[in-house]
Design a protein that fits this description.
Strands 2, 4, 5, 6, 9, 10 and 11 form a seven-stranded mixed sheet that branches. Helix content is 0%, strand content 50%. It has 128 residues and is mainly β. 32% of the residues are buried. It is built from no helices and eleven strands.
Length: 128
C-alpha cells in the first residue's frame, strides 16, 4: 500500500520557520519525484518544490525560492520542506505528492498539480 504521511505543520509567527516531513512507503522512493504542493482554502493547488533524488534535480516556485528548501533522506524514504521567513500568505494546507521520475528527466521538469500519490496534508498557519 502506498502511503505518504506528512507531519510538522502548526502555528508560527510571521518571520518564523517550520520543517515539514513526509514519510513515504509502498513505492520505490528514488524512482519518483517528490513534491510539496499547497492549497489555500477556496483556491487551487499551488506547486511549491520538487526533488528527484535519482538525478539530484531540485526546482522551486518563484514564490518560495530562497525561503524554502526541499531535501530528501533516501535511506529513510523521507522528504522534507524547510520553510523560513514565513509570511501570512504562506498559510495553507501543505501536501506531499509523488510522480514517476520520467516527468523529471532531461530538459523536462513537471511543475503542475497532477500526481500519482498524495499525502493527507498538514496545516501551516502563519499568524501573530
Amino acid at each position: 500500500e502506498v502511503q505518504l504521511v506528512e507531519s510538522g505543520g502548526g502555528l508560527v509567527q510571521p518571520g518564523g520557520s517550520l520543517r515539514l516531513s513526509c514519510a513515504a512507503s509502498g513505492f520505490s522512493f528514488v524512482d519518483y519525484g517528490l513534491s510539496w504542493v499547497r492549497q489555500v482554502p477556496g483556491k487551487g493547488l499551488e506547486w511549491m518544490a520538487t526533488i528527484y533524488s535519482y538525478t539530484s534535480n531540485i526546482k522551486y516556485a518563484d514564490s518560495v525560492k530562497g525561503r524554502f528548501t526541499i531535501s530528501a533522506d533516501n535511506a529513510n524514504n523521507t522528504v522534507y520542506l524547510q520553510m523560513s521567513s514565513l509570511e501570512p500568505e504562506d498559510t495553507a494546507v501543505y501536501y506531499c505528492a509523488a510522480k514517476p521520475g520520467i516527468f523529471y528527466m532531461g530538459d523536462y521538469f513537471y511543475t503542475g498539480s497532477d500526481y500519482d500519490y498524495w499525502g493527507q496534508g498538514t496545516q501551516v498557519t502563519v499568524s501573530s
